[in-house]
Write a structure and sequence with these properties.
13% of the residues lie in helices and 44% in strands. The protein is mostly beta strands. Strand 9 and strand 10 form a beta hairpin. It is globular, with a radius of gyration of 15 Å. Bound molecules: flavin mononucleotide (FMN). The site of flavin mononucleotide has 16 residues, from strand 3 and strand 5.
């Protein structure tokens, strides 16, 4: 059965998700990051998470070969950061306040949660790859609402 890509996207868009920026370091040590909604918790024991990355992403080698990454869970007032890390900006970090996590990857300020990971595995996922991370450190701020992505647009809770 052939699945029409438009309908596939429309069906997947009915699944509301949060928005993250996954950050890491390139082989040259430069910070890299991309907006990712295909993020999921995977396992509690051991603590594993996963995200799915387009094989065409320029940051692909940083995440398939680099030792670590950070999943920065965006808050409702961070849509501009989501757009920055999904857009063509040359230096995405120039306009976004950030520091460094314990694993050496960029850690964005003002996020709902910071999930530091060591790369555990990389699996095939068609035109994407599935990157598994073992959680090495966590930070949680539950005083704000999440940025939500639904039907191809940002949404707010409630
Ligand atoms: C809300 C939102 C969610 C996204 N989710 C994903 C995703 O889960 N996986 C992915 O590969 N790209 C996703 N993208 C697209 C990437 O952020 C974008 O293609 C980015 O530029 C890829 O990084 P690159 O510049 O290194 O190629 C998303 C974009 C937006 C705006």
């Amino acid at each position: 059965m052939t699945i029409d890509p438009k309908r596939f996207r429309a069906a997947m868009g009915q699944f509301a998700s949060g928005v993250t920026v996954v950050t890491g370091r390139g082989v040259d040590g430069r910070p890299v990051g991309a907006t990712i909604s295909a993020f999921s918790s995977l396992s509690l024991d051991p603590p594993l998470v996963l995200f799915c990355l387009d094989r065409g992403a320029t940051c692909l080698p940083a995440f398939t070969q680099g030792p670590a990454f950070i999943v920065n869970v965006l808050a409702s007032d961070q849509a501009d950061i989501s757009n920055t890390f999904a857009g063509p900006a040359e230096d995405r970090f120039a306009t976004v306040a950030h520091g460094s996590g314990a694993n050496g990857c960029p850690r964005l300020n003002g996020c709902l949660a910071t999930v530091e990971c060591a790369r555990e595995a990389v699996h095939d996922g068609g035109d994407h790859v599935i990157i598994l991370g073992r959680v090495t450190a966590l930070d949680v701020h539950d005083d704000r609402d999440p940025l939500v992505y639904f039907r191809g647009a940002y949404a707010l809770l409630g």
